[in-house]
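Practice problem: predict the structure.
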Amino acid sequence: MENRVSIISIIVEDPNAAEQVNALLHLFGGYIIGRMGLPYKERGIAIICVVLDAPADITSSLSGKLGMIKGVTTKTVTSKTGA
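Answer:
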């Protein structure tokens, strides 16, 4: 299966979910090109952007697992062409 570049946008509304989010990102670390996290203290949330170079099933797996964490919302955008 060919790799594609994807971006997973993550909003963490429950600070208690941060540990689970970081554990999953560590688990999939071999596919992560980079990540950026922004704490938005005024709203009490954290915004994380993760860029992956991975097969579609890996990207879907990570996004799905993140989305199942209480207090976490995700959205994924994937490139149309593979590598």
